[in-house]
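User: Can you model how S-Hydroxy-Glutathione sits in this protein?
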Amino acid sequence: MGIKVLGIPMSTCTARVLTSLLEKEVDYELVPIDMGKGEHKSPDYLAKHPFGQIPVLQDDDLTLFESRAITSYVSYKYKDQGTDLLRIGNVKETALVGVWIEVESQQYNPAILPIVYQLVIVPMYGQSPDLAIVEAHVEKFNKVLDVYEARLSHHKYLAGDFFSLADLNHFPFTYYLMKTQYASLINDRPHVKAWWESVSSRPAFKKVAENMTLA
Ligand code: GS8
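Assistant: Here's the modeled complex, given as structure tokens:
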């Protein structure tokens, strides 16, 4: 029994998990979930993910949800192979990775998600984006990115001068943002731009991004 990921490749949170598996050189099987048919709300699926969302990771008898918890699990379990994502062995670096994992989840994601949702996901369903929501979150995201610009002017990556899980977790939403006119929010900040160019040129990201095609 190997690792199974239940999800779909275009989903941001699924993409986050797949990227961690590729960075750690772990084989996996992607089991597609038919969200159009409401498979993620079926009793069988809800037994695995009580909130009825994707992704889920199954590793033998262990079933996990929440993409960031899953990428941490993958990084710990496979600490001795692939890219060193947690800097285990250096307690200070591990702590800083933890800080920036939280910053992504608590600051960056709440600001970027509604922008991407309105400009990328809503139009997929043939609806018009709510531009007031976009504007409010662009203002919020600008403030977050000012902090990133300052941080990245001192360090190549978020937790220090090494690529880590903190950087990885940013990938899927930033990837979609870069397809909108708000790519300028990243590109107008030289250190954030250089960081994104470095992060998004990694083979694991490129491979996952190939399948992040919007219907
Ligand atoms: C969010 C999962 C999520 O929003 C995580 O795993 O990180 N905090 C969770 N999943 C979306 C698809 S976007 O990847 C989803 O399943 N939406 C359907 C729904 O909520 O019904």
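A couple of observations from the model: The first strand starts at residue 3 and ends at 7. Residues 11-14, 40, 52-54, 66-68 surround S-Hydroxy-Glutathione (CB under 6 Å).
User: Helpful, thanks.
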